[in-house]
């Protein structure tokens, strides 16, 4: 998953899924063989939004409800960086939302845990401890363990 942050907000796409109808989700997809989770997120971000050359700040890893590994790669976007709908069949629209505005009911359990444990906690931490809102989430770089991929 590509988690794109800009001005304290996170990029979500609303798109059509045959089995679910219109849903909110992060841009993302499958990790190809010999590809890192971060590289896959950057590739999928470009394929789904035409966004590239964003600053990578961290990658987090978890296991989803199906037993598969899931990666959340965080990228910082500038004010000028905007996604573009690239596939008409997806009926994509893009939204910049504050973490507390994310409609959790559209997301899988691992995604909800990431939103609650990383995006929302970080937002609370910034406000409680008086960090200036630079528009970026403070993240510790988490190196991917290539043996797990």
Automatic annotation (TrEMBL):
Domain named Nudix hydrolase: residues: 1-120
Coiled-coil segments on the chain, per record: none
One Pfam match: NUDIX
Example of a GO MF term: catalytic activity
Family matches, as Gene3D superfamilies: Nucleoside Triphosphate Pyrophosphohydrolase
Official protein name in the record: MutT/nudix family protein
């Amino acid at each position: 998953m590509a988690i794109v942050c800009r001005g304290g907000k996170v990029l979500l796409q609303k798109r059509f899924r045959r089995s679910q109808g219109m849903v909110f989700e992060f841009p993302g997809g499958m990790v190809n063989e010999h590809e890192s989770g971060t590289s896959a997120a950057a590739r999928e971000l470009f394929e789904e939004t035409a966004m590239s050359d964003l600053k990578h700040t961290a990658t987090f890893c978890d296991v989803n409800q199906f037993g598969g590994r899931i990666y959340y790669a965080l990228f910082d976007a500038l004010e000028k960086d905007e996604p573009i709908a690239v596939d008409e069949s997806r009926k994509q629209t893009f939204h910049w939302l504050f973490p507390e505005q994310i409609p959790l009911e559209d997301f899988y359990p691992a995604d909800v845990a990431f939103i609650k444990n990383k995006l929302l906690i970080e937002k609370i931490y910034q406000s409680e401890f008086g960090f200036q809102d630079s528009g970026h989430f403070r993240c510790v770089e988490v190196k991917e363990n290539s043996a797990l991929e």
